[in-house]
Amino acid sequence: MKKTLFITALLSLLSISVTFAQNTETPLTEKQKKLMSLPDSEFVLFTNNEDYIGYKLKSTGEIVIPAIYDKAFPYKHGLAIVDKDGYYGTIDHIGRVVTPYKYYSAYEFKDGMARVVLDSKSGYIDSIGVEVIPPLYTQATNFNDGLAAVQKDFDKWGYINKKGEKVIPINLTYTQVYYFSEGKAWVRRGETYGFIDTDAKLVIPLKYDWAMEYSEGLAAVMKDGKWGMIDHDGNVVIPFKYQGLTSFSQGRCTVLINGKWGCIDREEKLVIPAIYEMPIYFESNKTAKVYKDGKSFFIDLDGNVIKK
Q1: For residue 40, what is the domain's CATH number?
Q2: Which residues fall within 8 angstroms of residue 179, CB to CB, at 6 or more apart?
């Protein structure tokens, strides 16, 4: 198996190398050099009148990649995953093909890896567009904390690292598993959820109706139709009383109260009133887009409206 993985990865690398060599035969113009040096955040998606997708510069609005793609993801690691004529590949900042269009579907980069699908089997490309783990798995998750959950033959689950090595053998008999976050991953058997550690030991019993990954030391779980939160030892920190909630981010957890969304802090203080129509997700810049009365705007961590 290791020999097969090595040969497949080598062939993929050679394919990328040939593509790259073809793309670099013509020297770059000064404008292309500038585009290649820009941060990924400067490239934003746009859609033309025919619903094809391209990229333009955030600062100027200039179209730099024409709208020729059926689907497209934001740039990460200098690459964008795009769908052209029903097949997925990756392009760089000036639209050169880096990963050939050959996959039936693909997912955005997580933890430096992107899941790709070919012939109903999942594999992974790395942050430079090389297929480092060939499509072998009937089901798979994104990478997180350096590991991804994979399944073979719709039977048992296991976990692999970024080299494709089996860190946890594919013999876990759960109905469904998820990626690791903060050293634990939720697992489901039948209709109940619990958590395993990186040794595949069940450390939080299978007793919840639903579960989310750990974030900022807590995991959202549902029991008897109500949501609450537990710590890494399984102790209830946020009581089971909410209609819905999300994982903690930036010290805030979105909760659903009487059909509206607001935010609590770790002491369960309602710091943002439950008046919004959609869950609130704070970005790394500590702002969130919210929806109220058919309008959208941005708020800070204390719920103050940000004028832009």
Answers
A1: 2.40.128
A2: 141, 142, 143, 144, 145, 147, 148, 149, 185, 213
